Protein: Flavin reductase like domain-containing protein
Amino acid sequence: MRSDPQHEPSAAQTEDVYGFLEEVDSGDQDNTRRAANAQPEPESEPQPVSESGPKPEVQETIADIDDSNPEIDALRSSVRVVMRNVPSSAAIVTVACIDPETNKRIPVGAAISSLTTVSMDPPMISFNLKEPSKTLSAIREANGLFRIHITSANRGGASIVELFTRGNDAAAYSKRRKNLKRLWMPRNKKEESQSESLAPQIWDDDVQAAMECRVTQEIPVADHVILVAKISSVHKKDVNIPGILYVRGAYTRVEGTQIAVHTATPPVEIAQEVQTLWDCPRFPGEEDRRQYVEHIKSLVKSNKSYMEPGKSSIKRLASALPYHPRALGINLYILVAECKRELGLPNPQLPASQMEMPILNEFYGRISPASREKLIDRAKKLVSQDIGFLSLQYGALMQHLSASNYLKDFLPSDIMRPLREAGLVGTIGYQSKGTDNDIYKLEQIENNLVQYLRTLEFSEVLTTSMDDLLRRCGADVGAATYFKSSRSRLLAMTHPKVYNRDTLDISGHVNAAEERVIIRRLIHFLFPSNYSQYRKNRTVDPNEMLRRIHVHPVITGMDIEFLVAKIEHLFQSTQRFIDFAPKVYGLLDNWLDKRLEWFELQDRVKQFVHNMPLRATTWDTVDQMAAMGIHQNAKVSVPGQEWPQSVGSGALLATLVAKELKNFYGTTGTQRENMAIAKFLKDAYDYDVHPKPGMMAQSGVEGMDGVERDGSSSGSEMREAMLANLNVDISKRDRKTDSE
Structure:
């Protein structure tokens, strides 16, 4: 459905030569964007709907225009340009159809932009489809019965329409089933929510109306067929939202603003190399970012429509990529400008001051505390040289700092507060003479927004868009783009009780062990082995996912958004759902080992306990294993045993952890850690730890029963008893080490 004249879609995609949404049959192997003078072979006679059902009236075919000369080519081009500027409706037609191979119902349908009313007495509509068309054939097979869906003029509505612009084949059906939240496929007219047509019904929130129809006339026109149909019933929600329009190759609201659509499946013109970003075994690093930039540049140079002036071409480019570049700190405006410069093309779009700025921002995503301090120091130096930088548009200011203005959980006050403490700026409330979206104005909006959010319940804030929140507190909705990426930070600031330590056990800058635990928990939360559960869980915002798995959403040190996007990519690109779960669980192999030697397991347990003693007393077995980099199905070779044992089953791991906690007690741990270890060993094993020599003087901590003891320890006996229970031989060397 792209307006790009150079785009060559596959046969399963939308025909949009004239700027309209018209479904093309997936079985048509010819190039769907063929030269305008190439017409399909006309059928000898119109195909009847059905011998048993009422036959629609078929008009005589209107003669084709001889378009084999340059004048007709020029005329066609002029008509295309004119009609691209004429808004048309965007709707969806669905029709009952059974796959002859599987004998199952399939969601056949098409996006149309030619829908219009013909009469109100009786209610009649018309629209046209390109022939050959699987949708048209299905309508004829269904006795002319079908269903029209009208979507709302928002991103959700546009996304639903987009699902029906890719033709009708197995891949398209899979995408529709995966992405439509409420797709109803009636089997017979006795079922609830039945309809006369038995056509697929879309009950998603962004579908505001549907109409049951029957064809009364077919009018062949060149390679299209105009269908005239009578409306038999209307299903309308109690809403008053305008429907979506299609103009200039884009989905549009009535007031003229475009609606961006993030398609789940990348358009076919994307070079395969761009998709290699998903091949990163873990998270993208600096080399991956640089390669992604080069791949995007190759794409832009091969499709010059992305170099057209205006934001719309940049938005199209961003939506055509597998992962949004700004999430990796890539500035598309500067990237496109560099492509123009390398091709020797005029470049009037980018200000001269930004021409020499790098494509890759140094600061992007979830920046660490150290990077945050570095960014603030850079801001101090910049402002000390010229305070006028603060009057720049916020995005331009951040660009001068080599920072993305979409930094996760970074607010304007994070810069202004240190500047104010250093005496570089005045008090809050200063009105600059620059643009409305400079940092002064955004800091005021931030303060007003924080005060307003504190008056709302957490559930209300969670479900209200940033646009609406800003509108309610009297702020400019245009500033929403600067606060959307900091939503979790704002929630944590205004609703601290929801984000307390009692419910969240991982926060701050995560280390490698915590990263592995988060990844395991996240995949477990998504439940990729259950179709209905995954479809439900995948719609949850990644930050809310973190909170639900007991992780503070304002963590740094890992790119949770990339992981969620990669799993979604696997979902969209996997033909059969049964193959999806193994791919997702296979991601864990990049972090967790499945086979260990005995000494490796001992070493990992020791490192885990010494580095995270409190986690060793509170986390369950699977979290402990993830922290150690061990897969929950891992096996370990145990001395004296012929077959490897499962690390996670039985008491093996718990015994090793308990032994190491006993050894760690009273050494380098804090008083809080020692108390937690003592309590854990007492509760879990009814074991009283014996303070080591000098521990009383250092910490003043008494034994579990309040009696001070000497340095004697039952460590050797405890360890032998534990390992004996595991049928593990204790060598003389191990005994000697214990006694020492």
The mean pLDDT is 82. The chain has five domains: 57-252, 272-354, 369-499, 512-590, 594-739.
